[in-house]
Amino acid sequence: MKPRSSRFALLGLLALRPMSGYEIRKTIERSISNFWNESFGQIYPTLADLVAEGLVREVPSKSRSRLFEPTEKGKKELERWLAEPIELSVSRNVFLLKLFLARFAGPEATRRHFDEFRAGHRERLREYAATRVWLKSALRSSAHLAYWLAALDYGVAESKALLEWAGTAERDLALTSTKNEGARRK
Amino acid sequence: MKPRSSRFALLGLLALRPMSGYEIRKTIERSISNFWNESFGQIYPTLADLVAEGLVREVPSKSRSRLFEPTEKGKKELERWLAEPIELSVSRNVFLLKLFLARFAGPEATRRHFDEFRAGHRERLREYAATRVWLKSALRSSAHLAYWLAALDYGVAESKALLEWAGTAERDLALTSTKNEGARRK
DNA sequence: GCCTGCATGTAAACGGTTACATGATTCG
DNA sequence: CGAATCATGTAACCGTTTACATGCAGGC
Question: With contacts defined as CB-CB under 8 Å, which chain B residues touch A172?
């Protein structure tokens, strides 16, 4: 995640079709917000940088929005970045941190975290299902479809697995807690 | 992840046993580095902050390392934080971003990403298995064991699911790419 | 006329990593 | 003796989020 991937995210989105900063934000929200986000405070300055570097150019627009598209150089740069190897970075997981320290909390708190965790992932699965239907009809002939479905299924696989894990994990925890009934805290 | 969780991570680790900044770093590396990391540049100033707020105090030490432990107030604060609900945040996923944009890259690049992705998760599973063995013997009587194993299993479940996903996803992609043989790019 | 959504941007603050500086201790 | 590791800390930088400021357009 280190090497300024925001710029490439923007570059990639503009490669789909010319867009304004505002449209980029909306598009992200509707498509990749499950694994990627950009704020306006990031988008507009980055867009200016990309233009300054000749990776993106502004195209004339009838409306008051400023449309941008990648230049040839920009497309090359995008391809280069896409081919670059990915270091799988460790993203912080507050849920796991709290589980790791759960001995210091009451069992009620942990149970609530598990409940919310499950609810969250069930909700995500519902969203994914809706997105899947929509994608298939809206992008019937798009060359991107297969990749976008694959990305969607990543989320589905993850949430399903974590839901299952949550079930067994909580049952296991209940078992050991009844065994050492009494003493809490360290 | 928003509200300064670093401080609580340190507080939680110090609740396990009094530690120096250096030891905190080492402990993180050996235990929760799969889902949490702190750098020295973060640890030492945060430790100073925690002391200034009366959540942590320094305990005398024979060696040249400065040992810290949570105060009563600190323990209370930790418990309070542990009970707080968790908003499941979206962490950026470069792999998925590249998959989403894969139409702009060559199929070789995508194949390589998948290979590395699989290799990475297989490696993780190997590490998890080793950690599991070690944990069970080293913490046989610890009240933390059950939680730590649960946290470990989270990673196992995730990696297993993603390995499976990668297999089917790549196969699906291969199918559609042979169907639309010829045209690449947009 | 007013509210919502469209639209662009800036400034400040934040959380975090990296690099640097320094020196003691331990072990081969 | 020299290298690795222990140990503490600071400064600079980076990417990102949040809040703020501004104003137009379209529909109720």
Answer: 146, 149-150
One-letter amino acid for residue A128 of the chain: Y
Alpha-carbon distance of B105 to A134, in angstroms, equals: 25
Token couple for A125: 């699965």
The domain defined by A5-83 carries CATH number 3.30.70.20: no
> Of all nucleotides in the shown strands, which has a C1' nearest the CA of B22?
D7
Grade residue B179 by pLDDT with cuts at 50, 70 and 90.
Answer: low
Instruction: Render pLDDT for A46-89 as a digit per residue (tens, 0 to 9).
Output: 999 999 999 999 999 888 899 999 999 999 999 999 999 998 88
Strand C bases near protein CB (under 7 Å) are: 6-12, 14-20, 24-25
DSSP strand pairing (A67-70 vs B56-59):
unpaired
Q: Say whether A69 sits in a helix, a strand or coil.
A: strand
Q: Where are the domains of chain A?
A: 5-83, 94-185
Long-range pairs for B115-120 at CB < 8 Å and ≥24 separation?
B116/A85, B116/A86, B117/A86, B117/A88, B117/B162, B117/B166, B118/B163, B118/B166, B118/B167, B120/A88
- Close Cβ partners of B11 (under 8 Å, ≥ 6 residues apart): B50, B55, B56, B70, B74, B77, B78, B81
Task: Report DSSP state, residue A19.
Answer: B
C-alpha A113 chain-centroid distance: 21
CA of A64 to C1' of D13 (A): 36
Q: What is the pTM of this model?
A: 0.93
